[in-house]
Amino acid sequence: MAAVAIGFTVKSGWASVVLLGGPATKPHVIDSCRIELSDPAIPESRQPYHAAFGTARPAGAERTRLVAGVKRFGRRSVTGAIRRYQSLGHRIAGAGVIVGSLIDPVQIANDHIRIHALEGQLFREVVRDGAASMKLRCRIWRERDLLGAAANVLKLPEARLRNAVTALGHEVEGPWRAEQKAATLAAWLVLAQPRSVRNAILAEE
């Protein structure tokens, strides 16, 4: 069976997931879904570093409990999605992950911006660690860099890429918004890497 790739667009508390089949010269969407990275039964776990009115949740037992819960719940969601695809016989070549930012929260002086960065880092690492636990190589891109990176690797103009990704959405039911399109491009980039390169890529930020 031909290799496929999985793409994730990571948000606060959830991720959009797209499974893309090859070849890279003519990809097709196999599945598109949403997974929860935080427990819907615990609404505050969606933003564990936030307290009321956008203020920072103080360090302590409550924040520790919420963060630990996200790591457990989110990792199960990621590995569950990957296992489901593998159980259907798909040989997943790797994972592409799209995030809003890669900045180190320690470098941010503004409290409100820093807690958003902490949550971005948390959910990004949950997805990456879940993929790594399933022996998948993982590449991470910032959303604002994605289209340029894809145009360079795939040797296609950005406008043509946008149209191609939009057209791929006609193959699936459900929403086909920016999150699904970004996850698709991430998976496409993984498919476009030669097998020898894919096998050499280590999980990275």
Low-confidence stretches: 196-205
Give the overall silhouette.
Answer: globular
| Gyration radius over CA | 17 Å
How many independent structural domains?
1
Total number of beta strands: 5
The count of helical stretches stands at: 6
- What proportion of the residues form beta strands (DSSP E)? 15-25%
CATH superfamily: Ribonuclease H-like superfamily/Ribonuclease H
For the largest beta-sheet, the strand count, sense and barrel status come to: 5 strands, mixed
**Spatial gap, N to C terminus:** 30 Å
Helices and strands, in order, run as: EEEHEHEHHHH
CATH class: Alpha Beta
**What structural category arises from helix and sheet content?**
alpha/beta
CATH topology: Nucleotidyltransferase, domain 5
Task: Walk me through what this model shows.
This protein is an alpha/beta fold and 205 residues long. The chain has one domain (3-200): Nucleotidyltransferase, domain 5, CATH 3.30.420.10. The protein is built from six helices and five strands, in the order βββαβαβαααα. The protein has helices spanning 61-87, 111-133, 143-154, 158-168, 178-192, 195-200, and strands at residues 3-10, 14-21, 28-36, 91-99, 138-142. It has a five-stranded mixed sheet with strand order 3-2-1-4-5. A hairpin with a 6-residue loop joins strand 2 (14-21) and strand 3 (28-36).
